[in-house]
UniProtKB/TrEMBL annotation:
GO molecular function (one): flavin adenine dinucleotide binding
GO cellular component: cytosol
Function as written in the Swiss-Prot or TrEMBL entry: Catalyzes the folate-dependent formation of 5-methyl-uridine at position 54 (M-5-U54) in all tRNAs.
Gene3D superfamilies, sorted: FAD/NAD(P)-binding domain
UniProt xrefs under PANTHER family: GLUCOSE INHIBITED DIVISION PROTEIN A (PTHR11806), METHYLENETETRAHYDROFOLATE--TRNA-(URACIL-5-)-METHYLTRANSFERASE TRMFO (PTHR11806:SF2)
Family of the protein in this entry: Belongs to the MnmG family. TrmFO subfamily.
Record-given protein name: Methylenetetrahydrofolate--tRNA-(uracil-5-)-methyltransferase TrmFO
Length: 446
């Protein structure tokens, strides 16, 4: 008997990974993506797995939480991480990609798979059969309403924002210097140093700049996720908040560069604050303002951000945008297999279920796609070992307190304790990594 295709709704990172894993298991899949017929408030292209906020997947080192998640996915044959590894751009200790080439390659790869049918249609109601919901934090209104009816619950919501991107040639390299913090890894960030006077002027301008006004219903329900706070929100929390956050100067000392009039143009001393720019593409033509998510009006962004030394003549190819994100109350609704409790043939992954970050979305896509295929093949769904980063993350979102549930990024705090106290953080994280990868290697899932 011919297998009925599994339906995957949403062509972001989670949906792309889910569709690939289903097809690789020998099960036909229909992947629905509403673009280009309808765009969300954050997307700009019709490609699958478009990275809308940043081009970075986070730290590469496997003794970092996100880096460990990368390594687990590599060992499980995840397509998203394989393509990320293939299309890297310099970013110090981070896994960053040429986002345009990355998403185009994934689009072509999935479109060419004989078991994947890519349909450019908007899905407005949850279909029957085996389904993976991967519509992300910007689920279309009709489908969101159908999901609300299905769960009997209102969404939770918070706001996320994307950072501006600058043309590299417009950055003043006489001021901005290339370095990574503490000189770790390659010199991959452009750093714009500020003295105290420059910083205070910038801080005051940022605090008083005009923001885009939120609608009444948005203002009432808005919750900022701490990892993605708009830069102006940080500024309003205090004079030094940014200096202990994205503008912290520690580990960044400008090189001594003779000026045309003699003397030292940069001083060779640690600045009062530093704005970092991360490379967006392989050629280094585009640079992302690290930590500068913003809800300021676009004219205000240009005015205030051009006060930063080195960015006086900055040309912006994209300014900061802010959009409403939605996620379900996963602890009440989901199993660690990423199945819905009330309908086991319906699975979900990505930011919709309250995981945070690109890599976590890919991980959710891997598990939801793998388990959807197993259901179609008459096999039991899988639960990952909780000693792995993937397993602990999905265990957390399915068992946390529903009353205070908030999106969760990968982190070592959700892993089971090691059984012994290790004071040195580096050593402790290394032990978590070793245990995770050993347990993953011993995990039999085929």
């Amino acid at each position: 008997m011919e297998k009925q295709p599994i339906q995957v709704i949403g062509g972001g990172l989670a949906g792309t990974e889910a569709a690939w894993q289903i097809a690789q298991a020998g099960v036909p899949v229909i992947l629905y993506e509403m673009r280009p017929n309808r765009y969300s408030g954050a997307h700009h292209t019709e490609h699958l797995a478009e990275l809308v906020c940043s081009n970075s997947f986070g730290a590469m080192a496997s003794d970092r939480a996100t880096g460990l998640l990368h390594e687990e996915l590599r060992r499980l044959g995840a397509i998203v991480i394989a393509k990320a590894d293939e299309h890297t751009v310099p970013a110090g200790g981070a896994l960053a990609v040429d986002r345009g080439v990355f998403s185009q390659d994934l689009t072509q790869t999935l479109a060419n798979h004989p078991l994947i049918e890519l349909r450019r249609d908007e899905v407005r109601i949850i279909p029957e059969g085996i389904v993976v919901l991967a519509t992300g934090p910007l689920t279309s209104p009709d489908l969101a309403e159908d999901l609300r009816r299905f769960t009997g619950m209102e969404y939770l919501s918070f706001f996320d924002a994307a950072s501006p991107i600058i043309v590299g040639e417009s950055i003043n390299r006489d001021i901005a210097f290339l370095a990574s913090r503490y000189d770790k890894g390659e010199a991959a960030y452009l750093n714009c140093p500020m003295n105290k006077e420059q910083y205070l002027r910038f801080w005051q301008a940022l605090c008083t700049a005009e923001q885009v006004e939120l609608k009444d219903f948005e203002r009432e329900t808005a919750k900022f996720f701490e990892a993605c706070l708009p830069i102006e929100e940080l500024a309003q929390r205090g004079e030094d908040t940014m200096r202990y956050g994205p503008l912290k100067p520690v580990g960044l000392t400008p090189p001594s560069v003779p000026s045309v009039n003699g003397g030292d143009a940069r001083g060779g001393e640690r600045p009062y604050a530093v704005v970092q720019l991360r490379q967006e593409d392989k050629a280094g033509q585009l640079w992302n303002m690290v930590g500068f998510q913003s809800n300021l009006r676009w004219g205000e962004q240009k005015r205030v951000f051009q006060m930063i030394p080195g960015l006086e003549n900055a040309e912006f190819v994209r300014l900061g945008v802010m959009h409403r994100n939605t996620f379900i109350n996963a602890p009440q609704l989901m199993l660690p297999t990423l199945q819905f409790k009330q309908r086991p043939t319906l699975l979900a992954a990505g930011q919709l279920i309250g995981t945070e970050g690109y890599t976590a979305a890919s991980a959710g896509g891997w598990l939801a796609g793998t388990n959807a295929a197993r259901l179609a093949l008459g096999k039991e769904p899988l639960t990952l070992p909780t000693t792995t980063m993937m397993g602990s993350l999905f265990e957390f979102i399915s068992s946390a307190s529903p009353k205070h549930f908030q999106p969760m990024p990968p982190n070592f705090g959700i892993l089971p304790e090691l059984g012994e106290k290790i004071k040195n953080k580096q050593e402790r994280y290394g032990r978590y990594r070793d245990r995770s990868l050993a347990d993953l290697a011993n995990w039999q899932y085929l």
